[in-house]
């Protein structure tokens, strides 16, 4: 999604877009056809968001 983001507003926009992507993936999963791969993909997406939140938290505390 690009380079480093230092502006708080841009960071929040980034997180919003990432959460929107998670919701899109959730909406696209057929519960009757879902498998472990789908859950793993969601977990990876959430892990990536967690990493960014920690980076942004560090930026905000400076």
Structural overview:
This protein is mostly helical and 62 residues long. It has one domain. It contains two helices and no strands. The protein starts with 7 loop residues before the first helix and ends with a helix. InterPro entries: YfjT-like (IPR047670).
What's the SSE blueprint?
Blueprint: H1 8-28, H2 36-61
- Show unreliable segments: none
Number of domains: 1
Tell me the series of helices and strands, N- to C-terminal: HH
Structural class: mainly alpha
Distance between the termini: 24 Å
Describe the sheet with the most strands: none
The percentage helix is over 70%
Shape: elongated
Number of helices: 2
> What amount of the residues lies in strands?
under 5%
Secondary structure tally: strands = 0
Give the rounded overall mean pLDDT: 92
**From the alpha-carbon coordinates, what is the Rg to the nearest angstrom?**
14 Å
């Amino acid at each position: 999604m690009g380079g480093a983001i230092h502006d708080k507003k841009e960071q929040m926009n980034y997180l919003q877009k990432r959460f929107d992507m998670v919701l899109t993936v959730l909406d696209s999963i057929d519960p009757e056809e879902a498998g472990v791969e789908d859950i793993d993909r969601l977990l990876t997406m959430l892990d990536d968001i967690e990493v960014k939140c920690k980076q942004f938290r560090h930026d905000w505390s400076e």
